[in-house]
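Entry type: protein chain
Record version: 2
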Amino acid sequence: MTTQEVANRLVALCRIGKYEEAIKELYAPEIVSVEPEGMPDRIVTGLAGIAAKSAKFEAMLEKVNTSVISDPIVAENFFSCAMLMNVQFKGAPVAVDMDEICVYTVKNGKIVKEEFFYTPQPQGA
């Protein structure tokens, strides 16, 4: 798959909430995931690590109210998209917006790196 095809497929799967399928289909075994400085699990590697990180995040959620993902922007072996989710965390009094830019690196038709850019919320608040 080309970078454009990978980008289009990832966005299509994420728009219908099939995140696990996207990981299984599009991520390379040596995937590296990078969160902003100061976040727990800032750098995670490998498919098992990504699956554990995803499961941990999903376990914190009560409900996803909305999810909007932009069309991808592609340049060489990179693509980016904006993601906005409004979520209710378990035990939290109000829903919050999670707004981020996601940048992906593609090699040999698979995503080998994902990096997320957002302003971290205070942990435990």
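Comment: The chain has a mean pLDDT of 93.
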